[in-house]
Amino acid sequence: MSDFADERNQICDIGKRLYAREFVAAHEGNVSVRLPDGNILCTPTMQCKGFLQRGDLCVLDTEMNQLSGSKKPTSEIRLHLEIYRQRSDINAVVHSHAPHATAFAVANRPFPVGVLAEPDLFLGEVALAPFQTPGSDEFAQSVTPFVHDTNAIILANHGVVTYAGDLEQALWMTEILDAACKTIILSMSIGGPKRLSKEQSRALAKKRSHFGFNDPRDLGNSEIDVRKNPLFGQQMDSNGIDRTFFED
Ligand SMILES: [Zn+2]
What CATH homologous superfamily does 5-190 map to? Predict the structure, then answer.
C-alpha cells in the first residue's frame, strides 16, 4: 500500500507557507487532500501547521473513520468532507484564518465582485456562510448552499475556506482572496473602492469562462448586471450589493 509520500510532503509544505504568511497562528487552520484511492489525508488537531512532519498526518475514509496516523484528526475535517461530497472535481481544501479575509468574516461583510480584476478572474463569486460552532455538523453544512458555485467561502466570525483540484491552487485561492481583502480595506481609508462598469465586469466574467471556470455571472444576458451577486443576494441589500462600499 502506498504511503502517499508526495501528498504528505505537499501538505507539510502548504502548512509551512500558511504559517509563514501568518494565515494561521498557533494550532489554527487545517489542510486536506483527496487521495487517489478516495480516502482523505488531513492535518491533525492541535498542532502548528508550520512544523508538520509527514507522520503527523491522518488518513480517514469519507465516513470519518481513521485508517492511519497516531494523532487525532482536526474536528473541522467535517467541513472538508462536506466539500468533497458536494464537489467531485475538488481534491484539496485549505482552511485558515487569513487576517484580511477574516476581517470581512468578523464584520459579516460579503466580498464584493466587480471592483478588482484578479479575484474576479480567478476566484469568481465568494460566499459568506453564516456562523456555526467550528467542528460541528452544522458548521460543515453551513457551506453546502454555496459550495457548487464558488471556490472560496468566508466563514462568518471565523475565517475562510478555499478548495480546488489540487493543493497549490487551493492555497492560491486563499492568497488571492486575502490580498484582495487587504486592498479593499486599504482603499476604504482613501475613499473606498470604485466599481467597474457593467461592461468591464461582464468582460472579466466572460474571460473567466474562457479559462474554463464555470462562472454563474456569465449569463449571456446584457440586461443582467454581473456586478450584482445573483447567488448570494440574500446576504446583501435590496439591490444585491453592499452599499457601504460603493458610491454608484
Ligand atoms: Zn478555523
Answer: Class II aldolase/adducin N-terminal domain (3.40.225.10)
Say which DSSP state 147 is in. Answer: G
DSSP letters, 59-103, are: EE-TT--EEE-SSPBPTTHHHHHHHHHH-TT--EEEEE--HHHHH
Residues with Cβ within 8 Å of 234's Cβ and at least 6 positions away in sequence, in order, are: none
pTM, to two decimals = 0.89
Helix (H, G, I), strand (E, B) or coil at 154: strand
- pLDDT tens, residue by residue, 54-107: 999 999 999 999 999 999 999 999 999 999 999 999 999 999 999 999 999 999
Question: How many helices and strands, by DSSP H and E, does the chain display?
Answer: 7, 8
Contact 30, 60 (CB under 8 A): no
Ligand 1: centre distance to CA 119 (Å): 22
Catalytic residues: 76
**Residue 128 three-state SS:** strand
Q: Report the pLDDT value the prediction gives residue 233, as an integer from 0 to 100.
A: 41
CA atoms of 138 and 158, how far apart (whole Å): 14
Distance, CA 182 to ligand 1 centroid (Å)? 19
Residue 117 contacts by C-beta under 8 Å, 6 or more apart in sequence?
204
What residues pack around ion ligand 1 (CB closer than 5 A)? 159
Cβ count within 10 A of residue 224: 14
Find the 150 Cα to ligand 1 centroid distance in Å: 19
For residue 81 the three cell numbers come to 468532507
pLDDT of residue 215: 59
Distance CA 201, CA 114 (A): 6
